User: Fold this.
Amino acid sequence: MNRLIVFIVSIFFLTQCTLSNKISPWKNEKKEIQDIKITEKVLSDDKKIITEFNQDLKLDFSTAKTNNNINNIRNNFGFQNYDGLLNKIGNYKFAKLENINQLNFKPVFLNDGLIFFDKKGTIIRYADNQKILWKKNYYSKAEKKLKPKLNFIVDGKNLIVADNIAKLYSLNIDSGELNWSQISSYPFNSEIKKIKNKFFVIDYKNSLKCYNFSDGQECWELKTEDSFTMANSKFSLIIIENDVIFSNSIGDITAVDINSGLIKWQFPTQSSNILNETYSFKISKLVSDENSVYFSNNKNQFYSIDIETGTINWINEINSSLTPIINDNFIFTVSNEGYLYVLDKVKGNIIRINYLFENYKSKVREKIKPVGFSIGNTNLYLTTNDGQMIIVDMNSGKVIEIQKISGNLVSKPFIHNQNLFVIKNGSIIQYN
Assistant:
């Protein structure tokens, strides 16, 4: 009788262990197998580099292309001409901006100085020696109280301004005098791009607008799906031949014919539930090599999209809202957790990963967030939300130095004429 009981109990135990997929050891093993297969699928192709994920892999970027078009009228990509180690040489002061969570504004860089704005929307032109050449303000007393935030684009002697209180106007950069002024139905929330006699900007309602450069008259408007909440970051747009490609607050990427304003293709990166998460959703700026569009978001998605068709070339799992940089066959990005990724541009394979926050104490790492980065001739320069600048050797991926810039938030670094610039609240710091 005892043997029969033992036999029955044994059969019952074996049946439960072998047949039930709810037993945790078996479930975990199955999950591990699935994860391996997913990894293999992402990395498997005949051009896969054997040394993928090797953080000690040395790469040679000595022949990388140099891009000097800092004002980004079209689509910037590539490294920029700078080899410095942050020797401070200048400080362009302005009245501090208010109610600003992220310094995602960009000066206009000129051959003999730069242009920026202050908390009341006053536009300031500086000389190379930080001397103010002129100051102009075209806002009423009531409008100044709204603390206008300005986006710029310069072409020739003309400066186009689009702001967050629905004003659009043009100035002469030599004198600061007004060329023309227009009022929009909604505030603007994007960078500005120009081609030929037209320029393009996106408003808060996810509408792409085309304007004549000469007088600011609207050519056409394309409305895309609106969201229920205000976007947490600026929208981005690029121009490829006769198409303008742009992002909106709900994750749509849309290609539009420049002349007609008709949609060529549209690619949704998020499901409909993003409508309720718009404020937490962040997408990087779009960058392009004239064949594909590259971008990432904070939902762990890094995309390569074919320009002609709007179809996916590849997707990789990288969590980043920072603007990626393209050079030759490589793409560079930094994740929101502080990892530097080098990817193969064609296949999306990860070539190398380096952790840039390893020199921080473990308790501090969780609070540190990257703000933005630029790449010089040999080094990458990354700013963080605690006012630090991390300098990284690009060939090795190793951190060279961490330098304190400010006690508060600083912008991403900008490189122009062999100098590096960083905006902190109240000044633009220049380094050589």
